[in-house]
Amino acid sequence: MTVSTCPTMIAQAPADLVWSQLHDPPSYGGWMDAHLVSVTPAGPAMPGQRILLRAPKWGRFFVVRIAVESVDEANRVLVLNGRFPFGLQLHNRIAVTAIDERTSRVAFG
After folding, report:
1. How much is the pLDDT for 2?
2. Which domain holds residue 33?
3. How far is residue 21's CA from residue 25's CA, in Å, rounded to a whole number?
4. Which end of the chain is more exposed for a tag (fewer CB within 10 A), N or C?
């Protein structure tokens, strides 16, 4: 079964700040409910990069694998493919757009 959604949120932060967090895989453990295990190869988000996380739930840790498919820095768009426990797979296109100098829209689709 395939489900497609495109949730959007308004971040009370400048678009450049939001993008800097998305573009920096080592920071993922700081704002995701997961612990960063590795980023291969190291460095800012780039196509082909693999991110490994461990997410705590129900007294256990579940492995989450993320592959960076593409990065469009000029338009602040990141495409990720995630593999989660129980066979769940997610294809995320995350786009950050400035609303004004202190607010941005983040679309997950």
Report:
1. 66
2. 8-108
3. 8
4. N
